Amino acid sequence: MTLSGRDAYRAELTALAEADERIVCLEADLGGKNHPFQTAHPDRFFNLGIAEGAMVDMAAGLAAGGHRPFVSTFAPFAALRAAESLKLTLGYLGAGVTVVAPYAGVSGAWFGTTHHCLEDLAVLRSVPGVTIAAPYGEADMRAVVRAAAESGRPHYIRTGRNAAYESLPWSGGELPLVNWANEAAADEVCLVSVGEEGTRLALEATGQRPGLGHAHLTYLDHHHLTLAAAELGDRHRRFVVVEEHRREGGVAEALALLMPRCEVFGVNAGHAWPAEGGDHGEVMAALGFDLQAVLAAADRLTPAEV
User: Fold this and answer.
1) CB 95 within 8 A of CB 64
2) d(CA 290, CA 286)
3) How many CA atoms lie within 13 A of 93 on its CB side?
4) What phi and psi, each to the nearest 5 degrees, are found at residue 213?
5) Taking Cα atoms as reference points, which of 103, 88, 89, 94 lies closest to residue 159?
6) Distance separating alpha carbons of residues 102 and 108, to the nearest angstrom
């Protein structure tokens, strides 16, 4: 059975810790009574409560002592409330800490604006040296967690709440730089999907319009996007980037700068602040982030027939 992103993270980290005693898990009061890592490795599990900055600072010390700390809290509290600690720990110190941030975007829809996070990519992409990932599905998440544990380098991994998706297939042991989910002619518009909901919408769009291309990106930091831009630009010239994030500081902006000879249009969460509750899909739709917006953007970039 396919696990949600945050459950896949916990399961994979628990399994990795069996063979690697350096791995420790820190949570900001999200684990509940049945956290698998706490059950399997209680001496390496720390619940820091709602003290996110202190949790990241503690992880920096553990990394300096030779451990491989993984910390997890809601995306808005990781990327925004603990932003200074993240900058110093992941950036200035280059500590081998991995931050796993569920509830990214508006996946915590019913919790309201305070628990939404549409700015985390902008914040983390501005910190040099951090590997940033937004896995789609269980297999992607497990692969990203394995890579982070093996590398010992700073990582930020964003995921949603409870949505569980089947990862796009890929061959080989490592995630591809660009996962071509739908091949298309070079003169067609190519959708570039980011994260869980961006990928879901891109898959729905190509299901309705098979002529569209679809390239999925998991790694979103400047280094990986620079490499991905070269591959994308070799195949297409017109792109629609679909991401559950603000327009500013997102992947569409980054790719537009990296591919100046291409047309890059973004479908994103825009500038609104949702003031009413609803499920995840309802809040995204209120922000203009839905299937119709993706299809309309593809139409906008498609030349009219003469």
Assistant:
1) yes
2) 9
3) 21
4) -80, 160
5) 103
6) 9
Q: Do the Cβ atoms of 178 and 217 come closer than 8 Å?
A: yes
Q: Return all residues near 248 (Cβ < 8 A) that are at least 6 apart.
A: 122
**Alpha helices per DSSP H over the chain:** 5-19, 36-40, 52-64, 75-76, 83-86, 120-125, 138-151, 195-208, 222-235, 251-258, 280-286, 291-301
3 state DSSP class of 49:
coil
Token pair of 31 as six digits = 């684990």
- The residue to which tokens 């067609």 are assigned: 188
Q: Give the global pTM.
A: 0.96
Q: What confidence score (pLDDT) does residue 277 get?
A: 75
Chain centroid to Cα 301, Å, comes to 26
For residues 272 and 232, what is the distance between their CA atoms, to the nearest angstrom? 30
Pick from 70, 72, 37: which is nearest to 52 by CA?
72
| Mean pLDDT computed over every residue of the chain | 95
Percent of the chain with pLDDT over 90: 89
Three-class SS string for 93-148? CCCCCEEEECCCECCCHHHCHHHCECCHHHHHHCCCCCEEECCCCHHHHHHHHHHH
Q: Rounded CA gap, 58 and 50, in Å?
A: 14
Between β-strands 190-194 and 155-158, what pairing exists: parallel, antiparallel or unpaired?
Answer: unpaired
Q: Which two tokens stand for residue 161?
A: 């709440």
Residues 59-115 have pLDDT tens digits of: 999 999 999 999 999 999 999 999 999 999 999 999 999 999 999 999 998 888 889
Token pair, residue 261, equals 């000879």
> How many other β-carbons are positioned within 10 Å of the β-carbon of residue 91?
16
CA-nearest of 36, 44, 32, 50 to 8 is 36
Residue with tokens 């990241």: 56
How far apart, in Å, are the Cα atoms of 30 and each of 48, 91, 109, 240, 258? 10, 25, 17, 35, 38
